User: Fold these one by one.
Assistant:
Number 1:
Amino acid sequence: MSVTHTEVTAEPAELAPCGQPHHPDCGIRDVLDRVGDKWSVLVIVELANGARRFRQLQRAIDGISQRMLTLTVRRLERDGLVLRTVYPTVPAQVDYRLTETGVSLTHLVKALADWSLEHRDGIAHARRAYDAQHPENEIR
């Protein structure tokens, strides 16, 4: 299966279990720690359209604080997904862009976004049905 494969199939993908004695760490936890949070995904989506300065990112990502954006781009830079470039100007200009590894991740993010859009109505329906059957456990 290629990273751009988005076709829904009836059979589950072949995945090795994580956290089992014979397979203690498949690496998925490290990846999910980084790209499993909404801010990282939103930064990656924004940078998929090209290099951005900090304030451009902040304006484009609704609800992100300056501190959270700073932490997010630092983590993405540390993981080799984002490149931070400081230009020798006064005042210094800084921009952020995806590395080659970061660009390769955009295909998976797009597949996830496509899946989300395709299944949004079904998930909303399932939630309503669950909440109707289990009003004491309603999750909001």
Number 2:
Amino acid sequence: MSSAYAESLYPAESNHLLDLNSLEKPEVTFWVARLDGDIVGCCSLVEASDGTAEIKRMFVDPIARGQKVARKLMDVLEAKAAERKLTAVRLETGIYQPEAIALYRKSGYVEIEPFGEYKPDPLSLFMEKTLSP
């Protein structure tokens, strides 16, 4: 569902989705959120070799939006990043997702230049939150 949503908003060259097979690696931690037993959200933390990590596949089903599912996923993700003593968490999101951008800003993420293998893209916003040691 998260792939279909992203594909409905952005052209292929601006979609930076991590394929599902890539989620089955040791450096990836993946969470799901459930509501009455049904999966209504997900996110993953992909650790890099430089002491940082990237948020990938952050998605909340429209039926569960407004119920703080994304906030709870972020709390769990950031707690795991702190536990692993990571220095920063980064992300790439699309400019047509104002609710996601607002969540990230409210959570302390600030805009940065493209990182890793990302190239500048007018449809992308790159953000980072520095974690306390």
Number 3:
Amino acid sequence: MPGRPCHMMLWIVVFWLLLASATSQARAEVYRHTDARGNVVWSDRPGGTRAEIRAPRVLSPSRASDKSMATPVASTRFTPYQRVFFKPRSAPVTLEQARRGIPLRLETVPRLRSGDQVQLIIDGKRHQSALFSHVLMAMGLAAGRHELVAEILDSTGTVRQQSRVMTLEVLPTSEAGALTP
């Protein structure tokens, strides 16, 4: 494998440069003072209390992580989930709750597999980046009805499966609301 030694050498050089940079920055003098508004200000210029900052601890990667970094992840065949659905909400959703954020529980059968991620789509637009989680957050929604869909992405970032559309009604006041799966 002709590219591997050069690639490994590059990582070693980058590691040593980062280590040297961290060591030189650790020796720099840092001063702390409070400005007229009461904000704490950190600076490399004298004029306050000299602060001791410890150098960051640099951990060397284990043998297992070295191997995984050197070997590209092979694309595996996606196996569809038997069920993908939002767990129905029992409480109404007010405008204030929608602005702060509404946690949505996604159920998958079987459980979400390693390498797969979920992203939230609201009213046809991606609302949340893909992540490995069963809880999604709908934030900043306006009053009215919204259509929510969860998309499951494989390890390559390709959408492989979707939940059924769930309608979420955000009420303008604290009135009772409806959530329809």
Number 4:
Amino acid sequence: MAQRDEEGRNKPLYMISVAAELTGMHPQTLRVYEQKGLVNPGRSRGNTRLYSQADIDRLALIGRLTDEGINLAGVVRILDMREHEEEMEREIDELRTRVRELEDQVREFKTRERITALAKYDGGTPESVMHGLLGGKVEE
């Protein structure tokens, strides 16, 4: 679901006039920001700039930063650090998920090991040992 939300945020929807109105910036400012690589709007078949919601949010952040007196070089650095942080957070989430999976596997292996240690081994299959532990009969 999060991926679908992210895809929706990145869908090019707004023409430059709408993007300018939404951000409170002049269309020429948006063109300059694109030229400097601060934003990269999509393009329609007719080569019209189309801004996504993610672009609008990014432009709003750029506007706040420049309003605070940060020059464009500083804005570029802040945006780069922010993207790097988001990438690291995604990686950490993936690693946490993998650690949970491995912990579950270890727990399962330890449980099997304890059960096996309690069971008498008569040369049968692990399934027959389990059925014996559970008081059931082995189906053959």
